[in-house]
Amino acid sequence: MNIKSLLLGSAAALLAVSGARAADAVVVAEPEPAEYVKICDVYGAGYFYIPGTETCLRIGGYVRYDIGLGDVGSFDGARSNDVQDGKNQSTWYKNTRFTLKTWTGQETELGTLKTYTETRFNFGNSNADPDFGSNSAHNKDVSLNFAWIQLGGLRVGKDESAFDTFIGYAGNVIQDTLVPYGDFDTNVVQYYFDAGNGFSAVVSLEEGSGAGVDGQYGVGTIDSYVPHVVGGVKWTQGWGAISGVVAYDSNYEEVAGKVRLDVNVSNELSLFIMGGYGTDDNYNDATYDQPAGGRGFYKQWGGNWAVWGGGTYKFNEKTSFNAQVSADDWKNVGVAANVAYDIVPGFTVTAEVDYLHAGKFGEAGTENFAWTPADKKNSVGGLLRFQRSF
Asked: Which GO terms describe its biological process (predicted)?
């Protein structure tokens, strides 16, 4: 028994030693450190570092649904032919839009390197008379509204004209161009200067675009190597701002300018007034066949002068009232007012009513008759907008 026990014990010891040596031979690799997305708070909320780089990225946008009714033309309703008897009648104007935005920022030895893009996708019907095209709901054109690069103060790419962006849009209403204050889409080479004490300035070389007064006619794109030129200055303080821009239209060799005053009356009320003046000696008189005459890329209003005014009143943190009144030398008058309500953060419903009186614009038998909304002197419409921003 002693010999048998000794043999069994020896065998067990050998197996244990062998097993220990086998276990010691296994090498477990160290796990790779996980590279989590890091928050970048240098440029504001929503940015994060692109893994493996020093570039900060922000992704945002909105989904919007518009319901419009009223007169056809500059706004807000639509018309369609009855499928049974062919009668031309009023119908809803509807449009759904998805907008994707991206921002990037990175610090370099030459200053901050930034980019911004905005792409819009639309589905809906047209708010034009069906006699001028189909009014069926359909996927509309995809538009690249912004795509620019900026290093320090130098910006290049697709933007909206500094004639509008630097001095500011005409209020917080949806239909802010009932009396237009300048065309928008253009390629640019710009330089921005910020003194840091509230004073800023811009110089912008612009290509323009083909869209005219109604988005279909006009020659806004430069026709030589001479660019359109915009210059602007602004002084911003806690009470508001004073700003001005001047634009040279190289196609027609005409000049237009705007000045603006913004006043923060209180925490609840902010007001603005903006005036525009432009020369028109070289513009051809408009006719029915050539409706773009009389205006360039910048002086989109009728006649020499125009004025826009309005403001915003915040009833509380969720509800605001916005209004704008506009008029020009051709006796065109626009009024727009809305109430915007934030149901929850990021989801806003806006109800707006719009009115346009077509002055010289709408006189039958004159050179401007072709631009009249639905050939009416007075047009009324409204929009109900649902927008989820993120």
From this structure: monoatomic ion transport
